[in-house]
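Take a minute with the sequence and fold tokens given here and flag any structure token that looks odd. Thanks in advance.
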Amino acid sequence: MDSSDTHSPTEGDIIINEVWTDNEGNIWFKSNYYDGGYYEGANPAVFLLNKISNFESIWEYVVSYHGYPTDIDPDAFFYRIYYRQ
């Protein structure tokens, strides 16, 4: 990337595809990240399964390059967790 480039190598779009709430009140959603931005016909760079705790204080997600993960596995290589202060 040189100084004339206007596109950041980390720039992209996240599109939420499906949202649901479980019996405990946690919010789950499936999303995709599109490297360089979303456009019609674009293939997602990654698939994410996200969970926001029922008190909206914890966000967990797992990333996959080969379709949506089926569960949030804390031992997965691409598992992440964030806490609201």
User: Anything to note?
Assistant: DSSP finds no helices and five strands in the chain. The chain has one domain: 12-83. Residues 12-83 form one domain. The two ends are 36 Å apart (CA to CA).
